[in-house]
Amino acid sequence: MASNPPARCCTVGVKHEGTPTGKLVRVANKHDAYLATPPADKEHKGAGILIIPDVIGIWQNSKLIADQFAANGYLTLLLDVFEGDALQLNRPPGFNIMEWLEKGSDGKTPHTKEAVDPIVVDGIKALKEEYGITKLGAVGYCFGAKYVVRHYKDGIKVGYVAHPSFVEEDELAAISGPLAISAAETDSIFPSEKRHRSEEILKEVGQPYQINLFSQVEHGFAVRCDTSVKVQKFAKEQAFLQAVTWFNEYLL
């Protein structure tokens, strides 16, 4: 693997303050999503971003991130890839995240690639056909990173991921466009050896890439950090700016 499977650290974090300004929509008449629309005077015509979230799904923090991308000119669709079965923040010790991934909370709603891939394809199709997006970027946090990497073949032109999990080496080697990564200094899911191996793969691929490593933060910082801690807030903000700058350079 280019990154390890999810673990409890994928569910731990802090809810951020703010008021989301987007709206809830349906994709393909069967998937929930959150749509953030850019101001008319800042809109990048035809450019849009698909956010594939971490296991917490559509919630306060991910909505605010979608709003931030929209404020920077990108129509942004945050997609529920868990069919309403996203996890709540801060699961207790002993929670079996792998069992949840394989079976879902009810034992019959798996969150495997066989289940998630078609949802992502529906999200890409909606952005292109319903919202007129011709230049598609994608953002993946933790769990979502795998599905950014997997779906360049379905129309993603440029990708950005933060603290990726569950990415296979062959998936990373198959990307067909630029990819940027934000990584945490402390991260058992994407540790130094996985970062270095990912760098080797990306160099072989030959597409533009960037890997930024942020000190004094842990897995999940780009979405769920404690913004009352200065170094965490700074890292989160810089990771977001990394993403926007990447899209501005390679998507527009």
TrEMBL record:
Q: Which SUPFAM superfamilies match?
A: alpha/beta-Hydrolases (SSF53474)
Organism in which the protein naturally occurs? Corynascus novoguineensis
List keywords of the entry alphabetically: Hydrolase
Q: What is this protein called?
A: Dienelactone hydrolase
**Which segments constitute the Dienelactone hydrolase domain?**
32-251
Query: What high-level taxonomic lineage is stated for the organism?
Result: Eukaryota, Fungi, Dikarya, Ascomycota, Pezizomycotina
GO molecular function ontology, one term from the record:
hydrolase activity
InterPro entries xrefs: AB_hydrolase_fold (IPR029058), Dienelactn_hydro (IPR002925)
User: Which Pfam families does the UniProt entry name for this protein?
Assistant: DLH
